[in-house]
Amino acid sequence: MEYQDILYTKVDGVATITINRPQRYNAFRAQTCEEMIHAFKDADFDRSIGVVVLTGAGDKAFCTGGDQSTHEGGYGGRGAIGLPIEEVQSVIRDIAKPVIARVNGYAIGGGNVLVTLCDLAIASETAQFGQVGPKVGSVDPGFGTALLARVVGEKKAREIWYLCRRYTAQEALAMGLVNAVVPPERLDEEVRRWCDEILEKSPTAIALAKKSFNVDTEMIRGMGALAMQALRLYYETPESAEGVRAFQEKRKPDFRKYVK
Ligand SMILES: CC(C)(COP(=O)(O)OP(=O)(O)OC[C@H]1O[C@@H](n2cnc3c(N)ncnc32)[C@H](O)[C@@H]1OP(=O)(O)O)[C@@H](O)C(=O)NCCC(=O)NCCSC(=O)c1cc(O)c2ccccc2c1O
Question: ipTM exceeding 0.95?
Answer without folding.
Answer: yes
